[in-house]
Amino acid sequence: MVLPLVCTLGTVSPQAVGIVVVTALGMIQVVVTIVAAAVTSLVFATAKAPWTLSRASRLVAKAPTATVIACVAGMLVLASPWGGARFAAALTYGEIARGAVFLVLFGGFLCAAPALFDTYPRTMTAFRTHIETRWPERWLASRLRNPLDAWFIRLVMYESLLTLPGFVAVFVPGWFNPYTVTLYIGGLISVQMFHEILDHTNIHNNLFAHTHLKNRFDRGVVGFLGFYQEFILNPLCGRIPHGYRVQHVYVHHVENNGQLDNQSTLKLDLTSCFDFARHCFRMSWSSAFPIDVAAYLIERRRHRPLRALLVGHGVYYAALVGLAFLCWPAALGIFVMRYIDTIGSVFLAFLWHGFIDEADPKNLFRNTLNIHNTEDEHGFFGTNFHLEHHLKPSRHWSLLGADAETNRTLHHDEHVITLRDIGPPSFVKAAWTGNFRRIAELCIEPQLESGEDPNARLDRLASLLEERARRHRRPYSPAWQAIDQRVTHLLGSVMPP
Fold this sequence. Notes:
three-stranded mixed beta sheet, 2% strand, mainly alpha, globular
């Protein structure tokens, strides 16, 4: 099976065998993830239907926190041993009824979870008003270096509410069953986007810095919040303590997507699912066992981040082994989900650093794009001003929008790509199907040239995008490239929009 594929590369060598094996393993990961996402979406839509198609949706909108608490409590009762939940060899009418009730409660949970996060302030004025009128933000604001960061305690509370009950339940002896597993997976999926915001912002702005506080109680509370976010909430949300921090700050932002960046897209073809699959495979193993990151740090004698990396992974795996004594299938499942979840970070890498000017690959203005978001004035906590974030990684998230305005002339001169809001999977889908005109239609920048026809601009942008996306074509045989092209187009066609 492997040998015919190796031959399509045009040569038979250990390197060719390695490319085929890694590609095959990566493709299995990608296909399994896409299928799992499709099945999960179908189950979630079914569960939410009774809520979205009835007046119950009003209850969710008015009281999302109470809805989550009530639904979680109901699901835990049904999932408990005294509720009769178990892995059954055959279904009974009682188990079918229990499953139906659980599905309804799970639907309420799924509807209420995004409603919790959707209340985030859209303007800086709204941020300040929220912080001044809500507890514990009001107490925290006077103790943090930047009062605006107090809002993130809201994310800590919401994410804990959504993930902690399911996580604890799967490890309680006698509680591991389809209900508790479903509850934890539902919570885990619900928090992914906003936990990326929380973790990424904390990495760069140290949200819960406490060493400047003189009061011992204040220093202890704020310090505990920082510890909780890194060593408890991160694992709850599927992340290894300090893993993202060390790789992101001490490798990615040092190399800025250059050749020495282990997550670099510089040598990848944006239109190749085989390149995408190999990158997924590499990043999954690097995330789980970051030997490449450690080697990079050792070579540069960066001992402090190296210690943080080793401590974070050591604590994580020690805790996972300890939990395995309580319930080894749950511990194994968490490791596997941690491995598979890396595909999300690869989607993001392809979005932020997918278009690179091959003539000037290390130019941040030509290897990074921005997202234009009209829903808020802070660019989704600064995330959408990705170019400005790379130019000044330690810059506070609330100031990146002003930096983007200051750099507008540079954006024009350097032909910076700025897109309207688009999800990473939709972006990759357009690239895999070769629909660069669709991406061009989303471009805010580069703008129309003087006297240029709008359709001519779209053609020009589509050509520019395709050139930057296909910048790295390996000297593979025509047979290998044909297989890659067909599989890529097939997967792009079946991916959800």
